[in-house]
């Protein structure tokens, strides 16, 4: 995208603030995953955040850093680049959660593989993620595919659309 996707405005406010509001009914606390360069952009002293703690350029970094912060809770992970996400999909995710599995997620927007960045990661997957990282695997999708995950069909697959480049953003806004 060429800029911090969490600061892009889709719903009248930066996406990370919109998602915080959207997630509040589902989470006891909403935490932002930030890299060291983004820490200075967190200006609200009440906003909780976890800083990437691993030397890996992958969303796995934020997930692992969250488990480092608290390994005994489930983490509801939502990517900041899904501007169409609504409570419809979050309700379905929470309703379909299976704590006996390592994670609950949806099939991605192509309907082929688990969507790792809209998922509930259970505490049992923390050590698995750490082990796979030590083995050089940095794809959370691959890890979900290798393990016993609950994979659901999204009620509206359009909500899983990732906006990762300026062209996709322009299409979304038109």
UniProtKB/TrEMBL annotation:
Classification via InterPro entries: MobA-like_NTP_Trfase, Molybde_CF_guanTrfase, Nucleotide-diphossugar_trans
Keyword rRNA processing included in the entry's annotation: no
A biological process term (GO) from this entry: Mo-molybdopterin cofactor biosynthetic process
Pfam families named in the record: NTP_transf_3
Domain named MobA-like NTP transferase: residues: 1-136
Keyword set, alphabetical order: Cytoplasm, GTP-binding, Magnesium, Metal-binding, Molybdenum cofactor biosynthesis, Nucleotide-binding, Transferase
Molecular functions (GO terms): GTP binding; metal ion binding; nucleotidyltransferase activity
Protein name: MoaC protein
Lineage, highest ranks first: Bacteria, Pseudomonadati, Bacteroidota, Cytophagia, Cytophagales
